[in-house]
TrEMBL record:
It holds the Pfam family Glyoxalase_4. Belongs to the methylmalonyl-CoA epimerase family. It comes from Sphaerisporangium siamense. GO terms for molecular function: metal ion binding; methylmalonyl-CoA epimerase activity. This is Methylmalonyl-CoA/ethylmalonyl-CoA epimerase. Residues 4-137 form the VOC domain. PANTHER family: METHYLMALONYL-COA EPIMERASE, METHYLMALONYL-COA EPIMERASE, MITOCHONDRIAL. One of its GO terms (biological process) is L-methylmalonyl-CoA metabolic process.
């Protein structure tokens, strides 16, 4: 069901500073920057590699305010790994299959993610303490 690691989401206090750090340290480059009001973040995607069905990225996340998922996470745990996201071919089918196994879905239906993706989160308490995201990428132009 899982095609690849789509991205790792990393919570940070200052997006511009963290982008500069990743570019200087790992030689990766930003391919997309967005504000996602629904998710309460401004974020940047830094390309790492290409894989089946899409790319693999580092996603840097700065909260839009303290009362957002990433804002609460930073207050509680500080900067660091926030979630892991797996690429899937069909997000609705994956949600049905995983939800049917008893894992709590944090989204009833897919939501808008970075770079035109459809995303859905799984409760970290049901995935061994790891906030987990499913990602369906838009079709690649042929
Ligand atoms: C919270 N918990 C985590 C966690 N966040 N565990 C692992 N990783 C995380 N990131 C744990 C807490 O420590 C707590 O455990 C329990 O989950 C409940 O957390 P809480 O702080 O009491 O509750 P909330 O209100 O902060 O909710 C946590 C929850 C929420 C994961 C349900 O953050 C959520 O719905 N997240 C999904 C959406 C999201 O994260 N969006 C931002 C990225 P204890 O043991 O203390 O009870 S958006 C994104 O990434 C998009 C743009 C994209 O990929 O394209």
């Amino acid at each position: 069901m899982l095609l690849r690691i789509d991205h790792v989401g990393i919570a940070c206090e200052n997006l511009d500073e963290k982008i500069a750090y990743y570019e200087a340290t790992f030689g990766v480059t930003v391919v997309s920057r967005e504000v996602n009001e629904e998710q309460g973040v401004k974020e940047a995607m830094l390309h790492v590699a290409d894989g089946e069905g899409g790319g693999s990225y580092i996603q840097l996340l700065e909260p839009l305010g303290p009362d957002t998922p990433v804002g609460k996470f930073l207050a509680k745990r500080g900067e660091g790994l926030h979630h892991i996201a797996y690429g899937v071919r069909d997000i609705t089918a994956a949600m049905e299959q995983i939800g049917g196994s008893g894992v709590r879905l944090l989204d009833e239906r897919p939501r808008h993610g970075a770079m035109g993706t459809s995303i859905a989160f799984l409760h970290p308490k049901d995935v061994g303490g790891v906030l987990t995201e499913l990602v369906e990428s838009p079709p690649r132009p042929s």
